[in-house]
Design goal:
Mean pLDDT: 89
Structural class: alpha/beta
Radius of gyration: 15 Å
Low-confidence stretches: none
Strand order of the largest sheet: 1-2
Oligomer: single chain
Number of helices: 6
Largest sheet: 2 strands, parallel
Order of helices and strands: HEHHEHHEHE
Distance between the termini: 15 Å
Number of strands: 4
Helix content: 40-55%
Strand content: 5-15%
Length: 131
């Protein structure tokens, strides 16, 4: 098992959130910059979800296919930028869609932008884990 996955599983068990909604949010600027397509990003995400299925289920995933120098898939760059971490758009969207209380939400990330997005969405610093 990957060390980061083991840490995530430990925190999930410690917090008692095994039955919670689990969502992946990811910046994917390579789509806007035409390094790869949405279909390729989708296939990669589905493979990641399949790889961790033996440990826990992922209920949904969302990615921000935006980069300032790339092709815009949104009506305006401001809309796109709102969804790109460290902005809170993807997290706020998930909280709203699933009716999740941000005070009971936990974010696992691997970058400072993940932490900033969670803080910008109003999550508690105690519930943000950069692994």
């Amino acid at each position: 098992m990957h060390n980061n996955l083991e840490k995530i599983l430990d925190i999930i068990e410690e917090k008692g959130i095994e039955d919670s909604i689990k969502v992946i949010v990811s910046n994917q600027s390579g789509i806007a910059r035409e390094y790869f397509t949405i279909d390729v990003a989708d296939k990669i995400m589905k493979k990641v979800i399949l790889d961790i299925k033996g440990y826990f289920d992922i209920d949904a995933y969302l990615f921000a296919p935006y980069h300032i120098s790339g092709r815009h898939l949104f009506e305006s760059p401001d809309d796109a930028n709102y969804f790109r971490k460290p902005n809170p758009g993807m997290i706020n969207f998930i909280l709203s869609k699933y009716g999740v209380d941000k005070n009971n939400s936990i974010l696992f990330g691997d970058r400072e932008t993940d932490k900033l997005a969670a803080l910008n969405a109003g999550l508690s610093n105690d519930n943000i884990f950069i692994i």
